[in-house]
Amino acid sequence: MSVNMVKGQRLSLEKQGGGQLTLVRMGLGWDAVKKKGLFGSRERDIDLDASCVLFADQQPVDAVYFGHLRSDDGSVQHTGDNLTGAGDGDDESIIVDLTRVPVHVTQIIFTVNSFQGQTFQEVENAFCRIVDETNGQELARYTLSGGGPNNAQIMAKLYRHGDGWKMSAIGEPANGRTFTELMPALAAHL
Amino acid sequence: MTTELVRGQNLPLPASQVVVEMTAQCPVELVAVLLDADLKVRDDADVLQRDGGSAPGVTLRPRAVEVDLTALPDAVERVMVTATIEGSGVDRFGAVAAPVATVTSGGTPVATFTIGDLHTERALQAVEIYRRQGAWKVRAVGQGYEGGLDVLLRDMGVQLRAPIVDRARTLLAGPGGAPHTAANAPTPQPAAAEQPADTASPFAGSAPRPQPTAGMSDAQREAAALEARRRVERLYEQVWGIFEDAARSAASYRSSVEYADNRLDNELADVLGDPAARTSQAGLAAQDAARAKHRDLVERARAGLDKDAAQLSAEVAQLEPQLPPELARWDSPAWAAWSAPEDVALAVRLGDLHLPENPQLRIPMVLRLPMERGLWIDSGATGLDGDSVSRGPEQVRARASELAATLVARMLSAFPVGDLKLHIVDPEGKGAAAGPFAPLGATGLLVGPPATTAPEITALMSRLMDRVELARMAIESGATDALPEHIDFSRQLLVVHGFPYGFDDRTVTQLRHLVEEGGRVGVHVIVVGGREDAASFGPLLDPLWRAMLRLTPIPEDHIADPWVHHSWTYTPDLPSDGTGVTQTLLSWVASSAAGGS
After folding, report:
1. Which pLDDT score, from 0 to 100, does residue B185 have?
2. Which residue, A181, B473, B486, B571, could crosslink A176 as a Cys pair with Cβ 3.0–4.6 Å?
3. What is the domain partition of chain B in residue ranges?
4. Strand, coil or helix: what is A115?
5. Superfamily of domain B3-188
6. What is the CATH number of the domain that holds A153?
7. Closest approach of A89 to chain B, Cα-based (Å)
8. Three-state SS for B143?
9. Closest residue of chain B to A59, computed from CA coordinates
């Protein structure tokens, strides 16, 4: 059963039958801008980018985004850039093999940026969800629509807890067209 | 989804109808043995063969054992599926490709088990189906028996074994012997069968094998060839998959260690920066704590690396015996089944790669054919840790020539006979480099005598340049059928020994052109030489060296992987008896050429 998460909520990533999750997918989806009216062709496509930054203690050690689709260790894989939001379901996904994340990496923060700089007020039906990739089951979903005049969002954090991992919903608006511009804002959530 | 089992691995069975099927490159006879909780038969009637014995729930087919788990008596704790080759004409499992056991449950394939790493064994325990806490599971056993079925059955407490072994032999030898599957076309192994079991060389046979597809219709042959090619493609992909996983696993380990080192440095600097804290109780405790954190992180990183290495080593161990000859090491039994290919092979093996953290995890280094880049075999390589000093430069040079000869032989064996022709340049050795290719005799595969003088080199380079230019022009203008008849348009392999001896500025420039442009139009180059020897040419040669893939005759850590750019140590695969196996292989190639034309 999927949980509709609210800001600040924490979720333990244990399987329902016990045991830890091994492979999770952070999916991001949004709808292409509707072409409306006479001058609809002037509407720009919305290009949202999902990224994630891997931290050891408080230090960023690797990032996965459209320009670096796989972490060097292979544990985090971006499925590729979607420039328009066309198509149903997840438009961009980041798959994390929790068993292979290097031992010094303790936190992974997921962000969404609007590459062309449009704000989340212009984005329709945007969501982020976390899926147990081993069986396709959605664990949590988090809706972005009705956003403010910001062009980035710090979505969620995966962090080590004991031998396993937990997820925490962050949902903080931020500004920055790529994740590098968000680094100062991320520091507050470590 | 089917699971590829490795030795010892087990898997729950989803349904009570279970079929274990065996495919092998030679006929095998299956025997099922019912065992109790002590791993022994209750009596001799627990041994089941085709046309021999029966038990509720177990049916023997020519190459499969069918089990209905619901019908088995309660006292039966496990059903062991065993196989023997005694009577088949092949004297040991090591002489043929690894047999494969396929497990199907309820009509769905659940697992396959490639039983590799077999040598002189004549019988084996393949897989067992067993009870575990009320549920049935299957386990990959893969235990071989040199002593054959007799010893295997003795271990299970069977009393009267001779009639069972004889029956298996009769079934295998007789006309009712187990048929082969199309996917594993039979390769007659008469020569291998005559060899005593302990002579391991796969090159012991005297003649190349007949085409395994002989006797098939064209359509069957085409289907078999396609299936074989797909199989090799899968293996090739698997090699690259293992390579990438190993590279990334090492990246994970190295980044953790680097992080731990930096953190320790910073934390110690903080403590030591305060002179008062250096010797205080609290300061000493902080230093200890920082070191303990470092140790803990490094240990956990190492544990992860070791776990990955164990998994990947198991995958390599399982992969190696399945590799076709051109991708296998020289000591692989796969060579015994070599036959001239009908199409150019997908790739050839150049050697092995490993990282210093895991010297035992050796990844096959393979080169896609036809090769696009030239190869440079560096006769001036220094190797690891002064290796070249201890060996002496002469030995390194000798090994470089040997590596060139064995790689060329491997390539000739990977192309259909006649599709790859060899040119040798060897002014320094006065043509001695052509010696290993003597078995090619009058086949025409070695074109002309080796070029040993500057005029001969000039003439050969001009011929090859003409060929490249004409082919390039023809391809660009789309007029490939207008090519002059006197030019041979099969692929040409130019091997230059002792470079740059005998070359001048002009022929060096031509060689560079062949290296850069030739690959695309079927002219391939292997250069054996040292950079030091060519110093007098100055920077003219830099682009030449850069354009070629450098291989070293002694291990050296200069190969970068494409994902994270670790430096991998390349170890060439040189046959233990020098070029002896090359001679044998070339004589096989030559007799294929004679038979095929």
Report:
1. 37
2. A181
3. 3-188, 236-327, 367-589
4. coil
5. sav2460 like domains (2.60.60.30)
6. 2.60.60.30
7. 25
8. strand
9. B259
